[in-house]
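Need fresh eyes. Consider my entry:
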Amino acid sequence: MSIPLSLTVNGKSVQAEVEPRTLLVQFIREQLRLTGTHQGCDTAQCGACTVHLNGQAVKSCSMLALQAQGGAVTTIEGLEKNGELHPMQAAFRECHGLQCGFCTPGMVMTAIKLLEDKPAASEHEIREGLEGNICRCTGYHNIVKSIQHCQAGSTATA
């Protein structure tokens, strides 16, 4: 049994039919073909699937697509404007805040919301704010450095 779903994704209206058990991450990746949002642990522990829903960072593997009904979703693909990377994406590139890249979309989405909520976050607060996101490559040093670089440039908003 499919159920109609209507929402906005990266500023575009989307209508689709989904099975009731379809996770938001599955809908984003499989139906919309926006594969920048990664599906890692399926238990909301790694944060690779983080997107923004109605202005909040959410782990899209832990919610049903139907829970986003009528909402506004922004994925990593929705951050780029007019061919320009979002300042947080640029900071991650400039400060080498990624290695394999698997966790990067979730880290970037979490970091943007973190600085929106707390523009003057200390290093400790940044590390604490990233607690729900796991990177198995970098040890977080350059991820934190990237966020601080973006923070210093006063470019925390999308």
User: Anything to note?
Assistant: The CA atoms of residues 65 and 144 lie 31 Å apart.
